[in-house]
Amino acid sequence: MDFDWSDDDLAFRAELRAFVAANLPEDWAKISSEGPGGADLVAFSQGFCEKLAERGWLTQHWPAEFGGRDASAWRHQILGEEMWGNAEPRGPRYMTVNWVGPSIMHFGTEEQKALHLPRIARGDVVWCQGFSEPGAGSDLAALRTSAIRDGDDYVVNGSKIWTSYVNHADYCYLVARTDPDSRGRQGISAILLPMDLPGIELREIPGLLGKKYFHEVFLRDVRVPIACRLGPEHDGWGVVTYTLAYERVGAAHYDRAARVLDAIAAEAGRKGLLESDAILERLGEARAAIEVARLLTYRVIDLREKQSPPTPDTNLARVAGTWAVRMTGDLLLEVFGAEGLVYGSEADAYFRLSQWAGVASGTTEIQLNLIAGHQLRLPRE
């Protein structure tokens, strides 16, 4: 693979960087440190994404018929790198652009496409993900939330956990069991759930990552029109698999890690720590991990650009990205010390991010199991 960027790509990146510099507020570090549930972050992201959309950048990699510009997957990756390198000013809207929209394009009815895709392309809608459950977090196939047909509706009962952005969401990309007699991957369906329906209750999950990071969602006799189902009934595992292939490399964590590592090196220099061989070795290891994550992600983007079906390369890239973030976060704490834990600081925000990097979008352990089974062909005990 040739990873040299074209002159047009380099010009786009330069223009994008200038746009970001001109549009991020002076207190962006504080706003972005609020985490996924922060009201200021979600509000800012709408105006920011509307400006991206006006320039044709937000969904440029989408087909023109759905509000895109038929741009390459590489062009979208440049956007993702610059966004994540600047603490992701798209907020929750990065999810809708990266995997919610493409999933609806692939599996949605004409009515669903007409309803959802224009709003996503404009950047004026917030989605959350209803996958993980108590007792079925990493093992999604063990989910118990049910959606039982009753006339023209599904009646949904159950709960979802570790849900980001749900306190601001207009819709939830929900996965539920529509066949009550099924087990495992069978009998599951994807539902595009409007969050203003009666019977939905939210509870914040307090934790070390910060306020309003995660919520639990309780669904009690929520009536959802059957027209909200995405894809075939009882056969939603294929929808989920397709969706996760986009989600797991949607966040260019390696780019933010690279910028944080530069700040760590500068801080180590100010403190005279660069005289330590141990610190130099740690800096080198973290840099190598970041570049490995970048190259493995580029492998996935290359396959996507060639219209290849999802492969275990996605899982490899996800694991490499997690390791790079964790290594950088641990080194940050060692170099910055107590100063790196001042709540609201950039260092603290990144350290907290590094702690849940191996959980969001599928745990590292599950990714390793998938790699062992699908790529290494190792037997199960």
Low-confidence runs (pLDDT<50, min 5 residues)?
none
* Fraction of helical residues: 40-55%
The CATH superfamily title of the largest domain = Butyryl-CoA Dehydrogenase, subunit A, domain 3
CATH class of the largest domain: Mainly Alpha
Largest sheet: 4 strands, mixed
CATH-scheme architecture of the largest domain: Up-down Bundle
Structural class: alpha+beta
Remind me, CATH topology of the largest domain?
Butyryl-CoA Dehydrogenase, subunit A, domain 3
Query: Main sheet: which strands, in order across?
Result: 1-4-5-8
Q: From the alpha-carbon coordinates, what is the Rg to the nearest angstrom? A: 21 Å
Count of discrete alpha- or pi-helical segments spanning 4 or more residues: 12
Mean of all residue-level pLDDT scores = 87
Summarize the structure.
The chain is an alpha+beta fold and 381 residues long. The chain is 48% helix and 14% strand. The strands form two sheets. The chain has a four-stranded mixed sheet with strand order 1-4-5-8, with helices on one face.
Describe this structure as you would to a colleague:
This protein is an alpha+beta fold. It folds into 3 domains: 7-125, Butyryl-Coa Dehydrogenase, subunit A, domain 1 (Orthogonal Bundle), CATH 1.10.540.10; 128-234, Butyryl-CoA Dehydrogenase, subunit A, domain 2, CATH 2.40.110; 248-375, Butyryl-CoA Dehydrogenase, subunit A, domain 3 (Up-down Bundle). It is 48% helix and 14% strand. The protein is built from 12 helices and 8 strands. It has helices at 7-23, 28-32, 39-54, 73-85, 93-107, 110-122, 237-247, 253-270, 277-305, 313-336, 346-356, 364-375; strands at residues 127-130, 146-150, 153-163, 171-177, 188-194, 200-205, 214-225, 229-230. A 4-stranded mixed beta sheet has the order 1-4-5-8, covered by helices on one side. The chain has a 4-stranded antiparallel beta sheet with strand order 2-3-7-6, with no helix packed on it. Strand 6 and strand 7 (214-225) form a beta hairpin. Helix 5 packs antiparallel against helix 7 (237-247), helix 8 (253-270) packs antiparallel against helix 9 and helix 10 (313-336) packs antiparallel against helix 12. The longest helix is centred in the last third of the chain and has 29 residues, at 277-305. The chain is globular, with a radius of gyration of 21 Å. It starts with 6 loop residues before the first helix and ends in a 6-residue tail after the last helix.
